[in-house]
Amino acid sequence: MRDAMADAATWADDVRGERKNGPWHYIDIPRSSQRGPLEPFCGQEGCVTKAISEQLAILKDKNADAAKRADALRYVIHFVGDLHQPLHTITNADEGGNCMPVKYFRRSPHEHNHSFSPNLHSIWDTAILERDAEGADAAEYADTLEAQFVADIEGWQKAGIHVDEWVWEGYDFAESVVYGDLTPKIAIEPNVAVHSCSDDNNIGERLLRQNIVAGEAYQERAAPVVEKRIAEGGVRLALILNDAAKANP
After folding, report:
1. pTM (2 d.p.)
2. Residues spanned by the domain of 127
3. Residue 20 to residue 67: CA distance in whole angstroms
4. Domain tally for the chain?
5. pLDDT for 166-185, tens place per residue?
6. 54-68 pLDDT tens trace
């Protein structure tokens, strides 16, 4: 069952190009925004909170086409994970950190086809987690996190389903740690539309020249955030799926 869910969890990324629904995977809240309703930040093509709401409605509809409900289940699994990655909830005119080149430990950033590697988004997607896992496979790492957060899980369950609040939690982590702990400090960019790292007066090149570093000190601050968001995401996904199952046994 764990393998089946793992396969389902990555499907939405596999089809995002074909289905042209990339904006469903995130919500772009500009840095220094004030807490409030999320609708103003959800673009015309949708965003992660709207996608979760719409796909849950399909999943709960026993009259919906079976294939569409299966897709909806895959989408919900994926998008709940996405919104617990802090850089899926914020932007600094840098495509959620994708246009921010960083030196990660010994890996220096390089440019290829107007994109940069490593970049802030990619290290939060994989590198920080993989370093934190210390070679453990997914099952062992999950067991480690479950033991680590055993005292918190009941509280997360009792808190219930509050998707917008989960987004703002991620946003706060992004401000305080993801951006806040980088060296040097990163200025807040004007809130302009960015579709490539050449936009916003060549944001990628400008940031590359700042020689942004994420090393040992950054990893030590980032890893606990990654651990907590993964653990919370798992518990909250279970809440959502259990609720959907009750609505449609």
Report:
1. 0.95
2. 2-247
3. 19
4. 1
5. 999 999 999 999 999 999 99
6. 999 999 999 999 999
